[in-house]
Amino acid sequence: MEFLTSTTPAHALGLIMSFPLGPLREEEVSLEQATARVLAADITAREDIPPFPRSLVDGYAVRAKDTYGAREGTPALIQVRGEVLVGEAAEKQVNDGEAFYVATGAMIPDGADGAVMVEYTRQAGDAVEVTRTVRRGENICFRGEDVRKGQVVLEKGRVISPFDLGVLAALGVSRIPVYERPVCGLASSGNEIVPADEVPGPGKVRDINTHTVSSLTKGQGCIVRFAGIAKDTVDDIIEKLSALRECDAMLLSGGSSKGQSDFMTTAVERLGGRVLFHGLNIKPGKPTIFATLWGKPVFGLPGHPVSCAMVVLRFVQPLLARLRGEGRPLPPRTVCGRLTTNIPSAYGIEEYVRVSVEKREGTAPLVTPIFAKSSVISTLSKADGYVVVQEGQEGLETGVEVEVLPLG
Q1: Quick check: 149 pLDDT over 90?
Q2: How confident is the model over 83-122, as pLDDT tens digits?
Q3: Crossing angle of helices 261-270 and 234-243, rounded to 10°
Q4: Which of 16, 126, 161, 180 has a Cα-to-Cα distance from 36 of 20 to 30 A?
């Protein structure tokens, strides 16, 4: 394959999102382990929620028609026949002209179709004066109003949120079918790279990409397996890739730029794989490799830290979402604001520009570009997000509204 015959971002994503994956593995986990996991089956309600009509207020369960026309000056007088405490069954029925005191969450007795807040009542011996008309169904959560028996409440492929856990707990689902977390193999490459806990000698630099890529990957719900740092030789890269053979996807950072590309592509081809594209029409991140090896997806990521991180965000994470079984990935949370200065860009290149965001009361947030080379990792730490300059744009002008995407 000719080096850096650049592929458009759209075509690259098409190849990535259509990459044939093997069957996803499933397991059952407890409620405590289910947060952020992906459902492997629909969750169908086996009962109504709530299982009985409940009061939403402290007050009186009544027949709504008995309160019609009630006002402060002309209250409705209703006999109190007892009370229902939280956690006990309502054994008596509310008849015409009767009320039962109910606490918030207590069972509503049969015959009642409304609950009046205690603030709109006055005690009158063994009766209560209601000073406000209550509508039918007011302040009551009826049986099955939240969830109906037989209803699909959570769909296969959904990422389980903390609020979904509440639904599962309410339904009594204590073992949840989820997809196993995919295993992502990771290695760095480069003769100049040393581990982060070492003091680099002359011409050496500490390994940055392992830690940023690992964190971004774990943030997608993956298990990361690190094979170490490869030297710039075909044999060493073959060794690292072979060590990661059982992983669901493999990421090698630092093995895609022009001087190193032959090592990566040659290693993949010697192992029986095939390079699907080498070179993306993006900035930063142009020298990206995507290949298939042993039926698994393989990324050769740029060595420059910012380039590497942006490729993971834009191209690797969508694949990881597929690997973990997401049926409909959630859109990223974005912020819209106005540019404080021009962003120049070359036509025909999709560019990712780091930005800071300053929020101001009563006006749109101010978005300021952070211009720096792709090797300057500190800009990612300082940035609040990034802006995409599309291929068909020659930059963005001061004052235009832009969408800021998250770095994570």
Answers
A1: yes
A2: 999 999 999 999 999 999 999 999 999 999 999 999 999 9
A3: 50
A4: 16
- Residue 389 CA neighbour count, 13 Å, CB half: 25
- Taken in order of first residue, the domains within the chain and their CATH numbers are 9-24+181-323 (3.40.980.10), 26-49+145-179 (3.90.105.10), 54-141 (2.170.190.11), 335-404 (2.40.340.10)
pLDDT of residue 3: 46
Contact in structure between 250 and 316 (CB atoms under 8 Å): no
Q: What integer is the mean pLDDT of 266-281?
A: 96
pLDDT band at 124, cuts 50/70/90?
very high
Q: Is the pLDDT of residue 303 over 50?
A: yes
Name every residue whose Cβ is closer than 8 Å to that of residue 339 and which is 6 or more positions away in sequence. Answer: 367, 368, 369, 396, 397, 398, 399, 400, 402
pLDDT tens digit sequence for 309-362: 999 999 999 999 999 999 877 778 899 999 999 999 988 999 999 999 999 888
Residues written for the chain: 408
The 10 Å Cβ neighbour count of residue 40 is: 18
User: Which residues, 6+ apart, have CB-to-CB distance to 303 below 8 Å?
Assistant: 189, 190, 209, 253, 254, 255, 256, 257, 260
Q: Which helix (H) or strand (E) holds 167?
A: helix 162-171
Percent of the chain with pLDDT over 70: 97
Q: How does 299-309 read in b/e, with b if 16+ C-beta sit within 10 Å? A: bbbbbbbbbbb
Estimate to the nearest angstrom the gap between the alpha carbon of 369 and the chain centroid: 26
The pTM of this model reads 0.88
How high is the pLDDT of residue 259?
A: 56
Give the strand pairing for 175-179 and 183-189: unpaired
Distance CA 328, CA 323 (A): 12
Cα dihedral 102→104→105→107 (10° resolution): 10
Q: How many angstroms separate the CA atoms of 144 and 151, rounded?
A: 10
Provide CB contacts within 8 A for 65, sequence distance 6+. none
DSSP category for residue 88: S
